[in-house]
Each structure stands twice: as structure tokens, then as C-alpha cells.
Amino acid sequence: IGAGTALVMAGIAPRLHGRLRIVFQPAEEILEGAQAMIDDGVLDGVDMAIGFHNKPDLPVGRFGMVHGATTASSDRFVVTVRGQGGHTARMHQTRSPIPAVASLALALPALVPALADPAVPAILGLGMIQAGHSHNVVPDTASLSGTLRTRSETVRNTLQAAIARQCRAVALAHDVECALDYRRGVCAQVNDAALFVPVRAALRARFGDVIDELPPSMGAHLCLQSHWKRL
Fold first, then answer.
1. Which has more confidence, 131 or 221?
2. What is the dihedral of CA 26, 28, 33, 38, to 10 degrees?
């Protein structure tokens, strides 16, 4: 698609006012490619950026467009709980990390309805819990990991702080150590109305009534975003 766009634009280049840069984004699935390109200067001198993503569930020949926030921010975290292992026959001599992790598995997702504005979409999803290797051995450590997604920076900051507080509370309640490794990922992608409106008009002028107004997604993408100014 990028190469085809470049070929078409090259044919009408004499009628263009300004310059066009075609960008192919690597490592999109791990959310690192665009940032590396930005760090290398791919947006230097760029006034506006238009991103495109395929959507196989749309019929061929139709375009999907989203007003405002199109995707969510995506942060990931790992909580490692360290206690004292031993034998399940002598639980009183252990400080099992498993009840602490189980407590966190219930408490962390509950932070969203308790603290986030219900009008702002937010998801705290757990994807992995790991603990132990035997039915009768209490492990020294246990862990869980997941993601926090939202389209609000305020909600993002609030829930990040709440996750840390919850980890401290569980550590105290269960007499274990609780280490939180929280890594901020990409921010929410927001379409600029000043660019959205003329792009939509151009598509309709060229192809007709082929645009579907789509709801925003809680998925995450790091696209090459820049400020937009009228040329």
C-alpha cells in the first residue's frame, strides 16, 4: 500500500505544494518501531502525518475512520511477590506468596470501577499468573502480569498510582515482599479534527459514500504522530 501510494503521488508530484514522505513502520506489533524511527529523525520537518491500518473485517472498497481518540494507551506491569517457601504440611513455617498473588488478581481489576470515571474507557487485564512447580511445595516467589489500557492520561496516572498502593497493601497484609515493575508503553492515538475533516472530504469526493464511522478501539498502536499546521 505504501509503495502504491508513492507511485501514485510521484505521478502527480508537479501539482503538489510541499513534500511527501512515505514511511514504512517496522516492529509495529511490539510497539517499538515508530519510536525508534522518530528518535532517528523521521519526523524532522514533518507538518502532518496520516496513518493507515488494514482492517480485514471491513468490506473491500470501504474506509473506516474514527473521530478523536482512536486507540488506547498500553502499559504493562509485572508484580513479583517474594515470601518464604516450604512444605504444605508445615504452612505455619512459610510465608506463601500464592495468597498474596491471588489477592492481587482480584483486587487489581477492581481498581478500574472503583477509581476510573465510568465515562472513560479503561481496562486492567491480567494475562499471566505463575507460581510453584509441585502440589505440596510452597514456592518462594509468585508473579502476575497484565496491561493497563485507557484513552485518558488522567485515568492512566490514577490507576498506575493505585496499582502501586495495592501492591504495598498486599505486601503488608501477607507479610511478603511485593516488587512492581511498571512500564509505560504507547499513549492513546488521537486524530486531529483539522486533518480528519479534509481527509474524509477527499475520500468522499474521490470514491463516494464509502466511509464507515468506526468506534474507537482499546488496542494500541504507536503511529507517527506530529502536530499539524496549515501549509
1. 131
2. 110
